[in-house]
Amino acid sequence: MIRIVVPAVLLLACTACAVRLGGSAPEEYRAVAMSVPAGAAASAVADVIRQADAKIALLTAERDSAWFAEVSAATGLALSGPGRTEGAAKGFLTNLEILGDTSIVLGVSDGTRMHVHDALYQIEEDRHVDLMFVRIGADSELRAAVRTLLAYVATDVGPNAALMIAVDTPTPQAGDSVAVLLRAVYASSGECAGASAAGPRADRVRLFYGPSARVRCTRARTIDYEGTPVTADLVVSR
User: Fold this and answer.
1) Chain-centre distance of CA 48, in angstroms?
2) Local confidence pLDDT in tens for the 238 residues of the chain
3) Can you give the residue ranges of every domain in the chain?
4) What is the DSSP string of 45-94?
């Protein structure tokens, strides 16, 4: 009888391969975030989402629930919201399984308020995506607003969730500042776009994602449409 001796190192390598092959594969989603221009037709916004081939859309618009429902129907994506704690409603469109959503107002330490729509989705058991749309008001001190946002995330978002946050800022310059303040914790679509994002930015809404161990960006760009929507290809790991 011939005995075949397999080196221990090779056995360990094969075992590791088996674990990886049996584990969950990364999931890639194209997300778009936009502040809808005043008076924009639902069909026009749906066209932007479809042409971007987005599977996740984070929207804010001064429109009613019927308008959001029309966008949902035109894109074939299910609607969360719209949540309305101020004039502009916020909603999400995606066909991930929703576990729950809420719209809240957070008090900022400078006395201003921050409006948030938040929804938790399930990719599979023990793997989730948390979507947020946050508006920082023109009167808010940006450092205080970012601290409030981070405190909310720390208490609300579970450890097994990938986070995608659309932040509506008063001006593109404020958006730049928020990106700098969040950089240590969350990356932005602007960073992912790299050299293509060089020069003055016109987008008030920025898309952030993280933590880096759970979600990464492979490509990002702005869309040539009023309000300058942003889109990013985000890969959610196990």
Assistant:
1) 17
2) 444 444 444 444 444 443 344 457 888 999 999 999 888 999 999 999 999 999 999 999 999 999 999 999 999 999 998 988 878 899 999 999 999 999 999 999 999 999 999 999 998 877 899 999 999 999 999 999 999 999 999 998 887 889 999 999 988 889 889 999 999 899 998 888 774 444 445 677 899 999 888 899 999 988 888 888 899 999 998 7
3) 30-236
4) HHHHHHHTT-SEEEEEES--HHHHHHHHHHHT--EEEEE-SSSSEEEEEE
What DSSP state is assigned to residue 203? -
CA gap 122, 78 in Å, rounded? 14
CATH homologous superfamily of 30-236: Endonuclease/exonuclease/phosphatase (3.60.10.10)
Would you say 177 and 206 are in contact if contact means Cβ atoms under 8 Å apart? no
Is 29 in contact with 215 (CB distance < 8 Å)? no
**Measuring CA to CA, how many Å separate 33 from each of 2, 4, 48, 57, 126?**
64, 58, 11, 6, 26
d(CA 63, CA 36): 9
Residue 74 corresponds to which tokens in the numbers above? 């035109």
Tokens 């959503």 sit at which residue? 101
Taking the model in full, what pTM does it have?
A: 0.85
